[in-house]
Amino acid sequence: MRISSLFTLPGIALALGLSLASSGANAELCRSASPAEAASYASPMQSPGIVSPIDGTCWIPAMTITSFDGTKLAANLFLPKRNGSSDQKFPAIVMIASWAAPGRVEYIGQQQKLAQDGYVVVSYTARGFYLSEGQVDVAAPEDARDVSSVLDWLQANAPIDINNVAASGISYGAGLSLIALGQDPRFKTAVALSGWATLADQLYTSGSPNLTWATVLGLAGSVTGRPAPEVNQNILALLDPNTSAARIAEITAWAKPRSPSTYIAAINKRNAPVFISKNFQDDMFTPNSSLAMFAALTGPKKIVLNAGIHASAELTGALLGAPNYPYDQAHRWFNRWLKGEKNGVDTEPKVSMQIKFSDRRESFATWPAPELTNKTYYLGPRGAIHFDLSCFCGKGDKGLISSSPNKTTDSDLIQNLFDTTASSGLIPILSTLGETINLPVVNSLLTVNLAAGVRYEAPALGATQKIRGIPKLNLRATPSQARAQVVAYLYDVDAIGTGVLITHGATTLHWATPGQTVDFPIEFSATAYDVPTGHHIGVVLDTADSLYASPVNLGERFGVRFEFSPGQQSTLVLPTL
Q: Where is the signal peptide (predicted)?
């Protein structure tokens, strides 16, 4: 049996991008290289449809797979070397492209590595983008059925072991991989990188519409694809401060079947293994929602948390096949669950975190991590600006963060007159991308305007404080009108007041009772950060950030008064190691 007789359908037709139909598993996909081709062979990218004389793999770059409803999906295929008989079967991976990404290109480096390791790997462009037909409808039921249709095609046309198949992808492909795992029992495991868990949590986190990333997604979808009308309508509705509660409820219901977290029970029922990779500076899909889903999974699972913005930690591994921690671990995961290798990936600690601004990683048994302790601090008001004779110093410029409960009754008012110098990044996306190369977002807390923001600072630390997980603020607030927004920034502050941004979070009110004091929780995005000895923790609260849409119309004013009293403490809770 020649290597060339491994694969189904005529290789030349595939290399030319002709449409494929299910035609049985014994026709040929790839052909052997001629002597001249073998002598000049350099890479599969230069010789599509030809079995590599170097490693026996074959790349078919321009396939078209017909889905369940006749929609044609642009795809490519990497096939491994055959070492056995003509009926030899291989584990297989279905890779789904990211939003606005071409599936024929995005994973090519990782596909080749996996094929060299004995996997059949197909990658396709999601419905509605580029050459894939149909409309973009954000992980709709049709998109999930596409994943199964691609597996149908593989089962009929490629030498795959149907009992050892995975779904995988980055971003949009990650979400669809998890949904497919919950709906199609043929998928044994899923590897989801930079995806989401609960879509409504990401689009409208604590009532805060994600202006920057919603705009990026909307524009990218319109330029590279054909969005269904409801997609842009929903985005615009979320960003509009005048959208009704009933309309928001409609969008939340629309998002539910598009959320992997909806399928947790189905995944748990069959004990399906799940691998997740998330990045700490991912402001599109923050780690928090995925950590909540991870905690709810009861089967074999692993999560790696990395420095980087959305998809940045995984990209070089996907496109170039370069050494890459998330994909290196994912490859171990595939080997364990699709090949049965006892490589320890399922018995070692389930959580791995990269410490920000370092190459160090720490492991935790699971999530929530039993190794962590919640450290509670108490916030005290800054009060009015005044001169204090007891210390012969000025006060009222900042509030206090203390390990002891606050004993003062007072309030701090901020108004949305303008943004402050506190920010998730002066240039959205690019600023946080800089953190991946150890360029932090920096701000002098002394420059925070007292009318538009308020800062709270703790004493200098006597030992390094290791923050691991999701910090939380629990405030009491009185909004001046029905709509208000508070953005919170957690800083590592040095002796002269310069703060390195550790993480941030936001909570937005849309239908509050003006003048009524309410509990006002703010959840920061998960992080792993070491505050060094001699530095101290700082928190800044203001009313705006470029990431988030304003809850009010242009020119409309609101104020938020933070209330403090010994009977109702405002706290900062830091998960620490």
A: 1-27
